[in-house]
Amino acid sequence: MANAIESQTPAYEPLAGCYDEMLDRSGHPRPHWEQLTGALAELGIDELHRRRDEAARLLEQDGVVYNAYRDGRGRRGWLLDPLPTVVSSREWAEVEAGVIERAELLSLILDDLYGPRELIRRRLLPPELVYGHEGFLRACVGIRLPGAHQLFSYGVDLGRDADGTPVAIGDRTQAPSGAGYALANRTAISRVRSTASHRSSAACGLRYRRSPRPGSTIPGSSC
Question: 0.70 cut: is pTM over it?
Answer without folding.
Answer: yes
